[in-house]
Amino acid sequence: MKTALHFKFPAILFGFFILLQSCTVYHSTSTDIGHAVQSQNKVKVKTNSKESYKFKKIIEKDNLYYGIAKANSNPVMNYSGKEKVELYSKNLNSYPIELQNIKEIYTKNRELSTILSIGIPVVIVTTAIIVIAQSLDWSFGTDSFTGY
Fold it and tell me: From CA 4, how far away is CA 122, in angstroms rounded?
């Protein structure tokens, strides 16, 4: 039982780190479609019907805009009730974006996403090391050395 407890804490800690690595932070101000295309970053699109969709990026092709998302991505499959238009690459599909249905577009905040993905685990590990180090008994042998 004690061995299982020793493995449980590191497993939970590593699981938490993996979750943080997938963390994406978006800018708080909306941007226009042109900036979203130029950024080539992840975007969150909010529609007039208050639905939210996340795309890997937005591309422009023949004066039409398409959101690129993972194949079979559940939130995107229901985007405007439309299926994918074409296969963008092996695991990515493109979905048409109708500008009249778009209320806001938020681009990924790369700096803050990186800081949170690295900073939070570093703070947690440092705190854990400090707490563990303070709880250990660092006295080796006797308190005084007599020389004999």
Answer: 25
Residue 33 tokens read as 């479609």
> pLDDT digit string (tens) for 97-126?
888 888 999 999 888 888 877 787 788 778
- DSSP states of 40-94 as a string? -S-EEEEETTS-EEEESEEEEETTEEEEEEETT-HHHHTGGG----EE-SSSEEE
For 82-101, the DSSP string reads ----EE-SSSEEEEEE-GGG
Which CATH architecture fits 33-107? Answer: Roll (2.30)
In this structure, what token pair is assigned to residue 12?
A: 């939970």
Asked whether the predicted pLDDT for residue 65 surpasses 80, the reply is yes
Helix (H/G/I), strand (E/B), else coil: 38 = helix
Choice between 91 and 88, residue whose per-residue pLDDT is larger:
91
What is the mean predicted confidence (pLDDT) over 72-80?
A: 59
Q: Angle of helix 2-21 relative to helix 110-135, nearest 10 degrees?
A: 160
